[in-house]
Specification:
Blueprint: H1 26-36, E1 51-56, E2 58-63, H2 66-75, H3 84-94, H4 103-113, H5 119-124, H6 126-140, E3 146-149, H7 150-167, H8 175-189, H9 194-198, H10 207-211, H11 213-233, H12 241-247, H13 259-290, H14 292-306, H15 320-332, E4 339-342, E5 347-349, E6 352-354, E7 359-362, H16 364-367, H17 409-426, E8 427-431, E9 438-441, E10 445-448, E11 452-457
Parallel strand pairs: 2-7
Antiparallel strand pairs: 1-2, 3-11, 4-7, 5-6, 8-11, 9-10
Helix pairs in contact: 6-7, 6-17, 7-13, 8-11, 11-13, 13-14, 13-15, 13-17, 14-17
């Protein structure tokens, strides 16, 4: 069971959180809330019960029980593929890539991509992360003594990382065009439609997704050209993700990815890879500003380890407290805060009947703030992760689990520790009164309004 060092004092201020639902919303109410913030669909009782069920167009179940989570994500994973809504939202951008594919098509892509994300390959990409951290430090220099939006800064830093490790900074890869298309996609296309709530089939048009199709087409065209150009020019001296995927093949069949399959998977890594790590870093900086004692302790660790330079891969083992801050940030503000599956066969979860076609949701946000699983669940306490093995594996799922666990988890954690340690060694961050971020989930758990913090040199 996770441990917390100290109880939360009565009336103590807590980090920002989502106001969960306290009464039934109905179909129209659910649609309005989902367009604003999907997390507000979660009943508050979900942080105190193992399962909550209802019907909003379709039957649904929210599951917060670790044993049931293991069943869904690992033991009976074939019975719980990604939900129809998830596929409707994501497929226009990333096709039938690793993230949304099912069955044999998923399996061969996973076998092909897994070696790309080996620890050795990820560590070889460490210098790109160190350089991005250095550029982030330089960009913040003019902000010293005033406020800056650290979410915007972290988006810039992590997009530099993912585009550089994917395409090695190719001139042919239009970074700005891809970034603009992703932002437009996040802003409108990824929102839930009323037709999604009602369970309408995928062939019924969703207007917001139609209007964004031009930007998505441009993004795919840019990626296709970069892939074709690389086939002509050959691999880099230090292979990047594109080189590794071009060389990769299913170890059982020898099958290699086509240009379209490479593109969809690369765009998956770009969209997920920069967004989720940027969110983790932005929320971590907010939490460090929220608790200056935690920030001071982390800074002392970073400065003692780094001695004035930027962090690199070899430093990570000597930055355990900063890693604990990252882990606790992922507990309080998991980027993938809401997973959704569609049951294929009859089943039982927590003693409740599950019928084929039921939507089965894992509200990770509620799971990781559950009062039966986490002492003082809304309190920011990195010490919970001092002994990581004491935490139930299926009570903490920022990267999911089972065979479909996030393939880039180690990449994201390495990048987050390197950039966070470097920034904390150089700057002190403090909250701007009246400008705390508001957690809002559209596709990922974003800080609505940005993460505005005062930036001061150490």
């Amino acid at each position: 069971m996770p441990a917390s060092n100290t109880p939360t004092p009565p009336h103590a201020e807590l980090p920002v959180q989502v106001k969960l639902a306290t009464e039934p919303l109905g179909i129209w109410g659910s649609f309005k809330v989902a367009r604003r913030n999907i997390l507000e669909l979660i009943p508050d009782i979900a942080t105190r019960q193992p399962i909550v069920s209802g019907r909003t167009g379709k039957r649904w179940h929210m599951v917060m029980d670790p044993a049931a989570n293991r069943h869904i994500l690992k033991d009976a994973v074939d019975n719980y593929p990604k939900s129809d809504v998830t596929k409707l939202i994501l497929s226009p951008a990333i096709g039938d890539s690793l993230f949304v594919a099912e069955g044999a098509h998923w399996l061969w892509q996973r076998r092909t991509a897994a070696p790309v994300f080996s620890m050795r390959n990820i560590q070889n990409l460490g210098p790109v992360m160190t350089h991005a951290a250095e550029r982030a430090v330089a960009r913040l220099a003019p902000a010293q003594g005033r406020a800056a939006d650290l979410f915007d800064e972290m988006i810039t830093a992590t997009f530099e990382v993912i585009s550089d490790v994917t395409f090695s900074g190719d001139d042919g890869f239009d970074r700005a065009a891809v970034h603009t298309a992703i932002e437009g996609y996040m802003a409108e296309t990824a929102k839930v439609s009323l037709l999604d709530i009602l369970g309408a089939p995928g062939w019924v048009p969703r207007l917001g997704r139609i209007f964004s199709s031009g930007a998505l087409a441009q993004m795919k065209s840019v990626a296709d050209k970069a892939i074709d150009d690389r086939r002509q020019t050959g691999a880099r001296p230090v292979p990047d993700l594109l080189d590794l995927l071009l060389e990769g093949a299913d170890p059982k069949t020898g099958r290699q990815m086509t240009t379209a399959e490479l593109r969809d998977n690369l765009l998956t890594f770009i969209v997920a890879g920069h967004e989720t790590t940027a969110l983790t870093l932005a929320w971590a900086l907010y939490l460090c500003a929220f608790d200056p004692n935690v920030q001071d302790r982390a800074r002392a660790e970073a400065q003692a380890t780094l001695g004035g330079r930027s962090a690199c891969v070899d430093d990570i083992a000597n930055l355990p407290y900063i890693r604990m801050i990252v882990d606790e940030t992922l507990r309080l503000y998991p980027p993938a805060a809401f997973l959704s599956r569609t049951a294929q066969k009859p089943d039982r979860l927590c003693g409740r009947e599950i019928k084929p076609g039921d939507t089965v949701m894992l509200p990770i946000y509620a799971l990781q703030r559950h009062h039966m699983l986490w002492p003082n669940p809304h309190q920011f306490d990195p010490e919970r992760f001092r002994v990581a093995r004491s935490i139930d594996r299926y009570a903490y799922l920022p990267f999911g689990d089972g065979p479909r666990i996030c393939i880039g988890a180690n990449f994201a954690l390495q990048e987050a520790v390197i950039i966070l340690a470097t920034l904390l060694s150089k700057y002190r961050f403090s909250r701007v009164p009246g400008r705390d971020p508001r957690p809002s989930l559209i596709l990922t758990l974003r800080p609505e309004g940005g993460v505005w913090l005062n930036v001061d040199p150490v």
